[in-house]
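Q: Two folds, back to back.
A: First:
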Amino acid sequence: MNINQILLRIKNEFDTAITTAQFNGNTYANGNKAKEALIRSQRIINYIHEFIKEEFKRCGVPPQMIHPPLGSSNPEIKIKGFLKSKNQDVSIIPDTSIIPLTKIGSPEVEKVLSVNIRSQLSSLGKNIDTLYERTFAEALNLHLSYPKQCLGEVYLIPTHEYDDRAMLTNRVVFRSVSKIEDYIRMFQAINGRRASDRDEYKYERVCLLIADFRQQSPKLYSSIEELKNDNLVPVGTTVNLDNLTINNFAEDLLAIYTDRFGSSLSV
């Protein structure tokens, strides 16, 4: 599936859970509870996990290097960082013999390319600071221990967030425009780490997926001009989506990896 098909599937499953108050054969008190069960299941976010893994495969990464394996959501690789250990959503490991070392920390872990993937379709505005601080801290946690490690982040946000209150009566309602300009500015600030001896809080490559789920088929934005044309950011904004879209996301990370380590992960 391409990314637009994945966004359509996410919308359909999200909307169905809300309007029927059902998920996975279970009936809940209301659409909000069913939506929470859907999110806890990790099903919708796993669609993006699989897309990212397929992107690396398309770029020539041998499937045996990709973890969790294609078509599976586990086992995820847990990497011990400076402050804590955390499971990585998608990892590319050139030498699987180092997998046990990721749990205790080892210089070899630096050669693991890691991508984490998140989405926030509701409660977007009130959680923006917490979500950003967590994203910021996770890059710092790994780069302090492994300065050369290549890290990617994929974040899905809506142009208009789902209204949690309407879900209580099993209705799909969208709130006013999300803080899109703020999100772009924030993620620009932690994107594009090139030197491995500074800017530990940055990711080598961030992808900000901005989608309008109000439409029958969600619209994915790929330029700041598109956002301006739809009145989603101010015409005079200074932010842009350069190197923040899904275009060339896998290619960019693999190119940085090759520059850092002098060897390619692709065949």
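A: Second:
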Amino acid sequence: MSRTLVLGPSLGTSADACWGACAALLRDDFDVIVAWELPGHGTSRGPVPEGLTAADLAARVLEQVDGPFLYAGDSVGGQIGLQLLLDAPDRVEGAVLCCTGPKLGDADTWRDRAAQVRASGTAGLVSATAARWFAPGFLEREPERASALLHALRDTDDDGYVAVCGVLAAFDATGRLGEIVAPVVAVAGADDPV
């Protein structure tokens, strides 16, 4: 039986910038690795759907993958993993959810971030995001990885970023966590402010 791993990126990153190095290390362990893009992020260009929801993004993932799969997701990618675990329990065999939760921040925080991007674009987020994304010393130890992630943020389509902020503002699976039946590993960093 084919083993498939699906990888979900975080807001403002591309699938390659977020997961490329990990995927390269895991190629021998999986027959298929699918890294999907958020709308307006990475290689996903074109019109961004209005009123985007986590369920919409989960449905897009399910359309890209045949059969059962394992899932790993970071931040909003992790929340989409939760949505997949709830919507398709027969398809998701297990998940690793990184730096995420059933609710991240509050709706006002995400609305404020969306307003900031509307006013000055994703490039205006790069400096503050570097301090939030990377633990002390990471920029010095891994300058190429950090640069790739920050360039992905800068290159993210403003409308795509704003749409995903809307997903984050609306998502709250706190009351449904008990419905999840597949094994889940939750990973958080000591220096992750979320």
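Q: And?
A: Residues 107-120 form the longest helix (14 residues).
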